[in-house]
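Researcher: I'm preparing a figure for a lab meeting and need a structural model of a single chain. I don't have an experimental structure, so a prediction will have to do for now. The sequence is pasted below. Please return the structure as tokens so I can convert it later.
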Amino acid sequence: MNVSRVALLVSQPGGKATLEVAGRAMFELNPVAALIWENLAVGLSAQEIIGQLAGRFDIPEERAASDVANFIKLLAQHLLLVDDAQFTVGDRTEIVDQFE
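Model: Understood. Here is the structure written out token by token.
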């Protein structure tokens, strides 16, 4: 799964960030979403990202898995993932189709 090259994460004070697409602000991201984007951009798997979120924010892995899955689905809906993504969350595999 690869993030779109037309999108750029711009850090803001307080851990928030803006996701710019083609030079225009499209989303304001909270610190969790910003970390998910950063990790997707460097090629980490969803499972690796889930582990990082759970550790960094001291949340259950199930909550981290839900956050990662929901954000990936949002990115796919806005065509900000350049290919279909398959990732494992816990004991189930989910497919995110960017053309939903």
